Amino acid sequence: MTANGSSRACAVWLTGLPASGKSTIAAALKPKLEAAGHLVEILESDAVRRVLTPAPTYSREERDLFYRALAFMGSRLVAYGVTVLFDATANRRAYRDFARRLIPRFIEVAVVCPLDLCMKRDYKGTYRRGQRGESTTVPGLHDPYEAPLIPDVTIDTTKMTAEEAAGRIVERVRELSQSF
Fold first, then answer.
1. Where are the beta strands (DSSP E) in the chain?
2. Residues 6+ apart with CB under 8 A from 169
3. What range defines the domain where residue 153 resides?
4. Environment class of residue 6 by beta-carbon count within 10 Å: exposed (0-12), middle (13-18) or buried (19+)?
5. Is residue 4 part of a domain?
6. pLDDT (tens digit, 9 = 90+) per residue, 128-159?
7. Rounded CA separation 86/135 (Å)
8. Looking at the whole model, is its pTM more than 0.90?
9. Could you tell me if 180 and 105 are in contact, meaning their C-beta atoms sit under 8 angstroms apart?
10. Minimum mean pLDDT among 47-51, 53-57, 60-64, 71-75: which range?
11. Residue range 24-49: average pLDDT?
């Protein structure tokens, strides 16, 4: 809370294909926002999914429920003065639009990276499982990924480091904080 009792808390949704660089950017962004006086929580989709859907099927219905719950959790944290970093693909615009409706101070960050490079960076094995047929719902491979139409910030991870990306997002957070 600021001196006048208002909160500078906001939500930053990092969206992009799996292995596009969202987690790396979130890790670089968190300490920068904390240094600027924000309480920060990262809601990383894999970590939250282990609690909400411990045996995930990644079906459309399950994803719909998961992203609604994730957005709701984030909205509650922001309401209590915590800046939330959503580290989640959220392959459908509807998921991010729902969060934007719940959270007035919302920043959508498009993390852009070509699919072939994401597949090379795939340290979790998401694309390999999809190529072997062990998963049939990989965004960008099987399921469409709906990129933001008008993102608040665009980060091309082929041209910008995570530190540079974090600095750019902090600038947008400062701009948003000044408007409230």
1. 11-15, 39-44, 82-87, 106-112, 153-156
2. 12, 25, 29, 107, 109, 153, 155
3. 11-178
4. exposed
5. no
6. 999 998 888 899 888 999 999 999 999 999 99
7. 23
8. yes
9. yes
10. 53-57
11. 96
